[in-house]
Each structure stands twice: as C-alpha cells, then as structure tokens.
Design brief:
The protein is of the alpha/beta class. The chain folds into 2 domains: 170 residues, 3-Layer(aba) Sandwich (Peroxisomal Thiolase, Chain A, domain 1); 153 residues, Thiolase/Chalcone synthase (Peroxisomal Thiolase, Chain A, domain 1). The protein is 33% helix and 23% strand. The protein has 11 helices and 13 strands. A hairpin with a 3-residue loop joins strand 12 and strand 13. The two termini are 18 Å apart. It binds acetyl coenzyme *A. The site of acetyl coenzyme *A has 22 residues, from helix 2, helix 6 and helix 8.
Length: 332
C-alpha cells in the first residue's frame, strides 16, 4: 500500500517584529482592541524587496534539513500563497529555480487560508497514486505589501503577518507508523465577496487603474462578522466529519492545529470540541494571521519543541476566503 508521511518540517519568520503599539502610530487603533478582538500581540513584516518565494525558500531549506533530503530529492513542488511575487507565473516555478532543481513540476495553489490543506491533499494524492515519491509543499505569505496601513484599512491591517512554512512529504508502505490518513475539503462560492480582493480583475478594462487604487479595491475587503460566524461552525464541522469518517473520537487527538485566524475563533472551536488549551495549538499572539503559512509554521514549531512525537494523532483544520475549509488527519 502506498501512503504519505511527513519526513520533515521547517518554517521561517522575518526578523522584523511589528507590535500592536507600532500599529497605533499608523492608524486609529489600540493594543487593547487588537488583543481583545483577535489575541494578536505582534506579527512579523519583511523588509521591502523580500517576497513570499524568498520566505518559502528559507522554510523549504529548513524542512529539507530536518528530512535529511538534498534539493535533488524533490520530485515535485506544491506552493500555496495568496501573496505571490508576480501575478503570473506562480511562486512554484520561482522556488524551483531558487532551489536549483532540474525540470521538476510545480503546482500553485490559490485557496487562501485553506491553501496548505488543499496543497497537502493534492500532494498526498500524487504520492498515493504512484506519480511521485517525494514532494515539497510550501505555504508562504507576504501580507505587509498588500495591507492598507491606515485607519481606513484597520479592520484587516491589524490581523495579518508575513511568514512561511514547509513540509517534505514522502512515500511509506507502513500503515502502522507515521502516515497521512485522509482529507475533507469544502467550498461555498456564495460567500466569495465576504473576504476578497477585487483587482486586478480580468473582468475590467483595463484590469487595474489609478481610480481603482484610489477606491481601495487593491486591498482586502472583509465582512469580519460574517467570516467569524461561519468559521466557528465550519472549523468544528469539518473536524467532526474527519473523525467520524474514521470512527475516531475527539479524545484520541493529541493535537489540533487550526489555521491561525483569530484567537476567539480558535477558542470557540476548542470549547465546542471540549478540548483543553494544550490540545489546540495557538501562536497567533506572536505572528498574527499568516494565511497559507499559518498551519505549516505551527506544525514545524510543535515538531521542534516536542509537543508532538512520532506516531501522535494530529488534525489540521482551516477556514478562509472563498469560503473554503477543510481538515487533514495524520499520524505524525
Ligand atoms: N482598531 C480599533 N477599532 C476597530 C478596528 C481596529 N483595528 N477595526 C475595526 N474597529 C472598529 C469598527 O469600526 C467598529 O466600530 P463601530 O462600532 O464604531 O462601527 C468596532 O471596532 C467593532 O467592529 P466589528 O467589526 O463589529 O468588530 P468585531 O468584534 O467583529 O471584530 C474582527 C472584528 C476582529 C475582524 C472579527 O470580526 C474577526 O476576527 N472576524 C474574522 C476575521 C478573520 O478571521 N479573517 C480571516 C479569516 S480567513 C483568512 O484567514 C483569510
């Protein structure tokens, strides 16, 4: 039987720490408001000139080292981001070049906060079907470039941060030890405009104008309350769907790693599941919401600090723009 195991994890956060107090100088907001509504204390921002491929490269190198792989071992790349270096081509080929690989394939995933889980499911399927034995999966974001850093944009500007995480995935034939179990993926495009960025858009002529920039259409548009309301319900539902499909209980989970959207969302999900603080991972206070990067950053952290050990039962879960949501279960 062909299954997939996580051979290595890695992450990279830019050194530049931006605190809530730093944001108070740029917009009408307060540390108290941000902490009370989101749980965020600080986030990391890159210096201009650094892109999400650069962050992804550093995370990938760390994952390769943990896996004991050389770059040449990579047979395929999957790259999830909503903040690519270029409108096209995607970051996958840029990372392929930076890693100095041969002509390996590179797939770009555009599923926002659920990007890492969609990417993981695709990589897992390629490995199970025998197409590849070793795949590099990266989630990386540079949000600091695309935020409206003033009072007008404060509802989203305070939420997001930059960072990257990566995993090396390899084939295994041993279902008694580390392996990915299954994934559950969902979307509901009726809610696409509740969290989106309107331009550049190929529906418009031209697809980007100064007027559109002046109108603020180049910034994320978010109906925070609507996102919050759906997120709490869908996070819980897709965890339960995954566990019930396997006949497994919530109590058997060693750790849930949710996409880090908002501490209040994570807390709501934790309470609905009846789990302890230790069983639901949170690092949003330090990094904010890093979208496709948040799950692989968290996963890499818990591997390195020993929170999870080989064989532990883990659930990854995400919800975000689209709306899209999903979960993955695995034995680490
Ligand atoms: N600082 C101070 N005040 C603010 C800020 C800010 N940064 N942002 C908004 N406010 C004000 C609003 O203007 C509003 O003022 P008003 O009452 O005078 O109109 C007041 O605070 C309350 O605003 P709400 O939007 O009702 O506040 P809410 O409690 O809903 O919290 C928040 C807003 C934090 C955005 C919340 O809705 C949320 O977290 N939603 C989920 C968002 C999310 O997780 N998005 C990402 C998930 S998907 C992804 O990761 C891509």
């Amino acid at each position: 039987m062909r299954l997939t195991r996580i051979a290595g994890t890695g992450h990279y956060l830019p050194e530049n720490v931006v605190t809530n107090q730093d944001l108070e100088k740029l917009m009408d907001t307060t540390d108290e408001w941000i902490q009370a509504r989101t749980g965020i204390k600080e986030r990391r921002f890159v210096e201009p000139g650094t892109g999400s491929t650069d962050l992804g490269l550093l995370a990938a190198r760390a994952a390769l080292e943990e896996a004991g792989w050389e770059p040449e071992d990579i047979q395929f790349i999957v790259f999830a981001t909503l903040s690519p270096d270029m409108y096209f081509p995607g970051n996958g080929v840029l990372l392929q070049k930076e890693l100095g690989l041969g002509e390996v394939g590179a797939l770009d995933v555009r599923n926002q906060c659920t990007g890492f889980i969609y990417g993981l499911s695709a990589a897992d399927a390629y490995i199970r079907m025998g197409m590849y034995d070793r795949i590099l999966l990266v989630g990386a974001e540079v949000h600091s470039a695309g935020m409206q850093m003033n009072t007008e944009g404060r509802d989203t500007a305070v939420l997001f941060g930059d960072g990257a995480g990566a995993v090396c995935l390899e084939v295994t034939d041993n279902s008694d030890s580390s392996h990915i179990i299954w994934h559950h993926l969902h979307s509901d495009g009726r809610f696409a405009e509740e969290l989106c960025m309107y331009v550049p858009s190929a529906k418009r002529r031209p697809w980007l104008t100064k007027e559109m920039i002046d109108e603020g259409l180049i910034y994320p548009h978010m109906n925070g309350r609507e996102v919050f309301r759906h997120a709490v319900v869908k996070f819980h539902a897709v965890i339960m769907e995954a566990l019930e499909a396997q006949g497994l209980s919530v109590e058997s989970l060693k750790l849930v790693i949710p996409h880090q959207a908002n501490e209040r969302i994570t807390e709501g999900v934790r309470k609905r599941l009846g789990l302890s603080n230790e069983t639901v991972y949170s690092n949003i206070a330090r990094y904010g919401n890093t979208t496709a990067a948040s799950i692989p950053i968290a996963l890499s952290e818990v591997v390195k600090d020993g929170t999870i050990e080989r064989g532990d039962f883990v659930c990854l879960v995400a919800f975000g723009s689209g709306f899209t949501w999903g979960s993955s279960l695995f034995y680490y």
